[in-house]
Design a protein that fits this description.
- This protein is mainly alpha-helical.
- The protein has one domain.
- It is built from three helices and two strands; from the N terminus they run βααβα.
- The protein has a two-stranded antiparallel sheet.
- α2 crosses α3.
- The longest helix is centred in the C-terminal third of the chain and has 17 residues.
Length: about 110
């Protein structure tokens, strides 16, 4: 069996990164964007979401969790990192004034 053209990945990873990029440029412009904070946001969001492993082939790939789940997980992860960063706070870590939250599911 030739597996050179096959790749197993967690489809939710790509979705989390896409939503993070969108939210950090649109809603959370003043959030600390250091590598540690970005990795913390991704890790927290991915730990909430169920893994959705897919096999990528040259013909295409499957999709991950519904977008609304990913958006909610990323929003909650950003809020947790803002509240408890893994480094000293700076003046740039300000909560957005327009929060689109559907409720908290992460503790």
């Amino acid at each position: 069996m030739d597996t050179d053209d096959l790749n197993v990945t967690n489809a939710n990873y790509e979705r989390v990164i896409a939503v993070m990029n969108k939210f950090l440029t649109e809603r959370y412009k003043d959030l600390c964007a250091c590598p540690r904070c970005l990795c913390d946001i991704a890790a927290i969001a991915l730990n909430y979401l169920p893994p959705h492993y897919i096999v990528e082939t040259p013909a295409g790939k499957e999709h991950g969790s519904p977008w609304v789940m990913v958006e909610t997980a990323v929003t909650e992860a950003i809020d947790r990192v803002i509240e408890h960063p893994n480094h000293p706070r700076s003046g740039s870590q300000i909560r957005p004034t327009d929060q689109h939250r559907s409720g908290s599911f992460m503790s």
